[in-house]
Amino acid sequence: MIAVEIEKKLKAYNGLQVLRIKKTFLPGGITRITGPSGAGKTTLLKMIAGLISPDSGIIKTNDTNWFDASQKTNLPPQQRRVGFVFQDYALFPNMTVKQHLEYATVDAEWITRLLTIGGLETFTTHKPDHLSGGQQQRLAIMRALAIKPKLLLMDEPFSALDLKMKSALITDLQVLFTELGTTTLIVSHNPQELDGVSGDELEIG
Ligand code: ADP
Predict the structure, then answer these.
(1) Boundaries of every domain in the chain
(2) pLDDT, tens digit, for every residue of 3-45?
């Protein structure tokens, strides 16, 4: 379980807007986060990951307070150990596909499995420059999963994938999520993005 009750002033070019979120994400579930561009979807994920601080409120899991403004608690991202798939992938230009995964885990069997699910087995020695957009995006997803996160935050994670690739990947990912008991939050501007996935929805903005 992760419970979020926070406020954050968003500094937009056209003035201030306050993002207010109150939501409990159930363990092992998938929640799609929707809303117009600029509503604060990415900012919400970054606050949960610890990359941006809310102005007030609480972010807590079953046993730990990650953020509590009144107690001045603010766990650094390394201690939250969430998996994060960034919208722009944030890959390391000088690392190969395999090195990206080895950076996150020493479990060779797990790496092999992720490479297979990501359709990246034959690209293990390639650096991001030599991958297609879809391959880069799948690498970003597999890297986030390498740490077997209890919480996975994904920002428009399927935008570069064609329909067939996307639905095959979503099927495989759901098996992994169940196995790991991962709670997953997926930011998506496209309401049809997760058709076929049973999950919750949080609309913001
Ligand atoms: P979305 O993902 O829904 O398109 P974003 O979260 O990227 O929206 O951005 C929402 C608004 O928040 C933007 O106007 C942006 O300028 C602002 N913003 C982004 N980061 C911060 C921050 N650290 N502090 C305050 N405002 C921010």
Answers:
(1) 28-51+77-203
(2) 999 999 999 888 889 999 999 999 999 999 999 889 999 999 9
CA-closest residue to ligand 1 atom 25: 10
CATH assignment of 28-51+77-203? 3.40.50.300
The overall pTM is greater than 0.90: yes
88 CA to centre of ligand 1 in angstroms: 15
Q: How many CB atoms lie within 10 A of CB 196?
A: 9
Which atom of ligand 1 lies nearest, measured to the CA of 87?
2
- Pocket probe for ligand 1: among 7, 9, 10, the residue whose CB has the most ligand atoms within 8 Å is 10
